[in-house]
Amino acid sequence: MADRCAISTRRAYRLVVMIALLLAGCATVKVTGQRALGAVPTAPPSVIYISDFTFSAEGVSAERGILPISLVNEAASESSIVFSRIFGVQINRGVRERELANLMATSLIEDLRNLGVTAYRFGPRDQLPAGSWLLQGTFVQVDEGNRLERALIGFGQGATELGVVASLSDLRGDHPRPFCEVSTIAHSRRQAGAIMSLNPFDAVGRFMLGGLDLDKNVMETGSKLATTIAHRVESRDCALDSALAPAVRPRAHVPSTLIPD
């Protein structure tokens, strides 16, 4: 019962973010690098397991331009967290990291399944069968930006930024064998702020929706990664598509240490 409630809560959370995507426009995300780490398996995976993405040592760069109060505890549900954040309440860093990791995992699974790829979330007690692939990832840069600047000034001021490096590993041997790495970068939309319209209601609306900008970055990144992975499954290679030529160099690489002995 608890698991079903958690799943329902996460679906509601994703629905809120998707509505925000429609109202405020999509974030900009692109693949910045892709490289082979080894030979790509010749056979398609029976299933792709998604491991929870980890965070770099810097973690999340806390949001600026919000209320200097914190009313959310670590036991709060994701639905209560997201609505508190919309109204400008500060969120504990550990709670925020958990929220982003959950959103990335559920987004990847849903997007991969929509593309015809069987995907499940990997848990620490799960046994990974031979013939499957493992997707690992790291949030190498997480900057929540300045929401007030985004709402009032815009044009890239106070923008969010999300950098991710993910790798695919083959599980046909005794240990995971990484064979492909993909890096992405995303940021909030660089549109004009409410100061141009001189409309206080517009400013309030932009401020509230701005609380979901980083979440939109995560969902758009998950969608981009899912599309890239689905292409890898179909083509059996790790070559960077010509349409996805890198604009910046990846900042870090995903460590290949995840599966317990």
What does this structure look like?
This protein is of the alpha/beta class and 261 residues long. The chain has one domain (2-244). The chain has 6 helices and 8 strands; from the N terminus they run αββββααββαββαα. It has helices spanning 2-24, 78-86, 93-114, 147-152, 200-209, 213-235, and strands spanning 28-36, 48-50, 54-55, 60-61, 119-121, 133-143, 161-170, 177-187. Strands 1, 2, 3, 4, 5, 6, 7 and 8 form an 8-stranded mixed sheet that branches. The longest helix has 23 residues, at 2-24. The radius of gyration is 19 Å and the shape is elongated. The model is unreliable at 1-7 and 242-261 (pLDDT under 50).
What portion of the residues fall into strands of 2 or more residues?
15-25%
Low-confidence stretches: 1-7, 242-261
Q: Can you count the helices?
A: 6
Name the helicity range: 25-40%
Instruction: List the secondary-structure elements in sequence, H or E.
Output: HEEEEHHEEHEEHH
